[in-house]
Amino acid sequence: MPANYHNGACGFSLADAHSEIKKWLDPDTLSKTIVSNPRGPRDAAWLQIRTTDPKRPDTVWPSAP
């Protein structure tokens, strides 16, 4: 899990040389303990969109929040 102890946020440095600060919104990502399978409609999708790519073009992918 990315950090959440900077006022509920963390920074990401991405391979294309840009960075983003993400303020977490869902309870699982704001938890003081590590949640092995975080759920929530916003944070997990945000992280998936920015850090992975579908293996197949027909894969259903979350829309950008």
Brief write-up:
The chain is an alpha+beta fold. 20% of the residues lie in helices and 15% in strands.
Structural write-up:
- The chain is α+β, with helices and mostly antiparallel strands and 65 residues long.
- The protein has one domain (1-65).
- It is built from 2 helices and 2 strands, in the order E-E-H-H.
- The chain has helices at 27-30, 43-51, and strands at residues 9-13, 19-23.
- It has a two-stranded antiparallel ribbon with strand order 1-2.
- Strand 1 (9-13) and strand 2 (19-23) form a beta hairpin.
- The model has no long low-confidence stretch (mean pLDDT 85).
User: Which class of secondary structure composition applies to the elements?
Assistant: alpha+beta
What percent of the residues sit in helical stretches (DSSP H or I)?
A: 10-25%
Order of helices and strands: EEHH
What is the multimeric organization of the chains shown? Answer: single chain
Strand content: 15-25%
Overall 3D geometry?
A: globular
Please count the helical segments: 2
Strand order of the largest sheet: 1-2
